[in-house]
Amino acid sequence: MKNILLMGLTDHEAAAVEIMIGMNWRDHRCITLKRELSLAIPEQHAAARSCEACVLDLFGLGMRKYSPANATRLMEVMAGRPAVLLTWGDGGGWLEAKLPLAKGQHIGWVGMPYTSAGLRDAIKKVKEAAERMVPPAAAAVAAAPAAMPGRARPVVSLDVEPALPAAVAEAEPAAVPAWRRAMELADQLKRKAAPVVSARPAARAAVTEAVLANPPARRPAAPVAPPPTPAPEPAPMRARASAPMPLPKAQASSVSLAPPATRMATDAVGLGKGALAALLQVFPLLRDQPLIGLTEKIIGHDGPMLLRIGTDAAFVTHTRAGWLASGLPVSALLKLLRTPRLVESVRAEPLDPDHVEETVRQRFDGKFHRAQKPLDVITWELVSDVMRDMKLQRQGDLTFQLRRFPNFPMLAGVGPLDVQLAAICARMPQSISELLRAFPKHEQDVLRFVVLCVVSGLAKVIPGGPVAAGAVAPPRAAQAQAPVAAAARKPEVAARRGFFKSLMDKLF
Amino acid sequence: MASIYKLVFAGPVGAGKTTAIQSLSDIEVVRTEANASDDVKTLKKTTTVAMDYGLMKLASGDQVRLYGTPGQKRFDFMWDILTENALGLVLMLRGNSPDPVADLRTYVTEFRDFIDRTSLVVGITHSDQGGWQTRQMVSRELVAMGLPPTAMDTDARSRAHMATLVKALIYGIDPFNNAEE
């Protein structure tokens, strides 16, 4: 087991670095000396002094900026060991300084904020340097006195190289002192009795295992906080990893029961290109609704339009861009447009696209972007209201796929089936027939969902799909379900579906 | 036998991961936050450094553990740990960030293997400040990346909003759950 000393880091930063080291070098463990509030250099106990390499946050050690005195203190802390030094800002002058490094001592400078890869590479180099230096450096380090005020070793001349640590290393015997051997033996015995101690290996699964096994009531992340009672020696990665979720390995590799996502067909059409016409062909009675009539009129123009109601109220819509500009909040807008007579009286005037911004600003207190509201949400709400007491009757079929998910958190009156249908139709094209086959007890809910998605511009209609009356849709949903149904017969999948149901019950 | 499942929340600093977990959790979220003292200081007084932890207890006895990943890129090695055997990813994006689509790309790229094995849902916070277009742009980008456009505006403080996101995530994993054959 090799030790790396972490000093001057915040608790959480140290935890993260410890985990990183544990993930990458499982035979390494970290000794962490907490950052002092005063940013003073903490005293190194024997275990800290025995570390072969260090990761030091210079700011956390009160040495953000370079000075000869700080350089001396830093050299004492490192005591000839290779180190990753975390610097702040422009480096505080450290990068330009020439430190009197010991022979073979490697320093890796890493600027904050660093990347995982940057820090990992720096630690790797330092670790390799430490391995090359052992045993002389280790012996020197072990014999080095703790860095304490008043107990500082002789000041190293910054102008002389090689510097004192190397000289010390050469002068002092390489043999491990008896006291250190005794300490190591004690450490070994302690580890056998209680494998998890404050300096336990920060193995990758230490986080998952400790946290998963003991949901921390108020305790921070497990990596640095030693559990009050000894925990078992970390099990092999896979076994531990699979513990939280009782799934066989094969299942764990792919949790999803969904068929692969299908890319939107290139010939799929949106509202302005025939989707609304296809929808109205399947649901011809919708044409009787003033709002649908208005929608047809607006979409027929395909550009921005000014809509006037009476003498005062006016909106600007831009179907292709997907917004409606209004000085009213959405709730007031909805209230207004829910009055069929008002909707029938709307006068629509095409706007020159070059002047649309100017028109919007003129009408809505100089606002342009702030006046815009998402047209799909407003349309969904309005059409949903119109269809509330309507029994939808279809005369044919159409195939569609969602290009946007309905903005459910902002929509009223949506249920679990809406979310489920959206999840299906966002993943692959579906025909009305397929959806009805999958959810035969929810005919009106399915039809309502289809109408809302298409008329709100959330869905694109796929022309190749069945649109003629009486056409029979290919059983895509049923096909997709077949392997799913087969999979569902497996006990573990059935168990997971039981879990999903339980979760949904809690969420809805 | 009661089982334990995991959901992972990821996203840039200040996107609302901790709040989202708090909204869903049955316990007070264990927050491993520290004073931000680097480049994120301008965004937030504190930021998640190691991870957040919340818990949903189900009537069946099963548990869903909610993990928030560190927002800073330098802790990205934690992401692998937290996603191991998780059910799916709730990606929280700040609608008012300079480039939410770039944030989306970054996270989807980082988590792509995980997403392909599980499911992804995107919650866009602060959309009232960032403009309604963010959802459109994010949805378009998801489709361009070959993913279902499961993106919604959300308020991380709202349990109902967060529940909707999780529902969408679960149906993304098992779209035909409870469908009649």
From TrEMBL, chain B:
<dbReference type="InterPro" id="IPR027417">
    <property type="entry name" value="P-loop_NTPase"/>
</dbReference>
<protein>
    <submittedName>
        <fullName>ATP/GTP-binding protein</fullName>
    </submittedName>
</protein>
<dbReference type="InterPro" id="IPR052705">
    <property type="entry name" value="Gliding_Motility_GTPase"/>
</dbReference>
